[in-house]
Amino acid sequence: MNSSLPLAVNDLTVAWHRKPVIWDVDIEVQPGQLVGVVGPNGAGKSTLLKAIMDLVPKASGRVEIFGQSYRQSRHRVGYVPQRESVDWDFPISVLDVVTMGLYGKIGWCLPVRRKHRDIALRALEQVGMSDLANRQISQLSGGQQQRTFLARALVQDADLYLMDEPFAAVDAATEKAIVEILRDMRKAGKTAIVIHHDLPTVPEYFDAVVLLNMRVVACGPTKDVFTRENLERTYGGRLTLLDEATEAMRRRERTL
Amino acid sequence: MSVLLLLTLFTAGFQISDFRLPAPLLAVAESLTNRSIAWPEWEQWKRVLLVQDYNTRVVMTGTGLLGMAAGLVGSFTLLRRRALMGDALSHATLPGVGLAFLLAPYLGLDGKSLSVLLTGAALSGILGVVAILYIRNLTRLKEDAALAIVLSVFFGAGIAILTIVQQVPSGHAAGLESFIYGKTASMIASDAQLIATAGLLSMIIIALLYKELTLLCFDEGFAGARGYPVFFLDLLLMALVVIVTIIGLQAVGLVLMIALLVIPAAAARFWTHDLKRMMLISSGIGGGGGLAGSAMSAVFPNLPSGAMIVIVCSCLFFLSLLFGRSRGVLVRIARRWDLNRSVDRQHLLRGMYELLEAREPETGSGAIGMPFSQLLAMRTWSSFRLLRQIERCRRAGLLVRHDNARLSLTEAGLAEASRLVHEHRLWELYLITQADVAPARVDQAADTIEHVLEPELIVQLEELLAQQRMSCGVVASPHPTIEQGRMP
Question: Both B292 and B372 in a single domain?
Answer without folding.
Answer: no
